[in-house]
Write a structure and sequence with these properties.
By secondary structure, the protein is mainly α. The protein has one domain. 69% of the residues lie in helices and 2% in strands. A two-stranded antiparallel sheet has the order 1-2.
């Protein structure tokens, strides 16, 4: 009876995905992202027409690129993690536009100026961390000057990095440690879908050869992908720390009052 040489790797990778999925889902259920807002040190002006214009232009640009690429590939581009992330980036900019317009269209409040949209902040954390990793992997390990590169490749590996960094520089978001579970869960979901696709609709195709279970180091590769996301998220936390120091400083008057009461108690 023939044995499956990849069985032990399938068991290890399956167990790894299961552990990550269960752990992250437990954290999500036990400590959900509240639909309200959370205080930040970055005062935000919802009526910033330049930021809104930038977001609208970026969103339209991303949508056009997404449609062109997905249509030309007959949806096959969506098997790649790059386009999973590009889709998430597009969703973020659309959601950011809606949030800013909604806050701009009503009378200004302290909540609008001093508090960030928590779910939107979490989405941005996932977008930023995965964006950095995808760009690093492409430009360090995949980019080949001898090969012809189509212009959309530059968009999803370089132009989007510049645009998201600009967004980070001018928005109200600071990375939240509570976003880590989502940052780790995101690639785990992709790996699970890619594995299912390999066994079904993509007929044995792996989006990235390094993920193949024929690779003797596959379990380490899969583990390394998750660890790399954690490292990139740590870098985003570091950037947020410097952002808060350089452009932050204002705090909600209510919080300042509480601090004063605490100091004089």
């Amino acid at each position: 009876m023939a044995t499956n040489p990849n069985l032990w790797k399938e068991i290890l990778c399956g167990a790894l995905l299961g552990i990550v999925g269960v752990a992250c889902m437990y954290r999500i259920v036990a400590y959900p992202v509240e639909p309200g807002r959370h205080n930040v040190q970055i005062a935000f002006n919802p009526s910033n027409v330049w930021l809104l214009s930038f977001r609208c232009a970026t969103f339209v640009f991303f949508v056009v690129v997404w449609i062109l690429q997905v249509q030309s590939s007959n949806w096959f581009e969506l098997v790649y993690y790059t386009y999973w992330n590009f889709t998430l980036q597009t969703i973020y900019f659309g959601a950011a536009i809606v949030d800013q317009v909604r806050r701009w269209s009503r009378p200004p409040t302290l909540t609008d100026r001093y508090y960030a949209n928590r779910p939107l902040n979490t989405l941005f954390d996932v977008v930023f961390a995965s964006l950095i990793l995808v760009a690093l992997v492409y430009w360090i390990f995949i980019f080949n000057t001898a090969k012809h590169i189509e212009w959309p490749t530059y968009v999803v590996h370089l132009v989007n990095v510049v645009l998201v960094v600009v967004e980070f520089a001018f928005n109200e978001h600071l990375a939240q440690r509570t976003s880590l579970k989502y940052v780790v869960l995101w690639p785990a979901i992709f790996a699970s879908v890619a594995w299912i696709g390999h066994a079904t609709y993509t007929r044995g195709f792996w989006p990235y050869s390094i993920m193949s279970l024929d690779n003797p180091y596959a379990p380490l590769v899969w583990l390394g992908i998750g660890v790399a996301h954690v490292v990139c998220f740590g870098f985003v936390l570091l950037l947020s720390y410097f952002k808060a120091r350089w452009v932050g400083g204002e705090q909600p008057p209510r919080l300042l009052a509480r601090q004063d009461m605490h100091l004089h108690a």
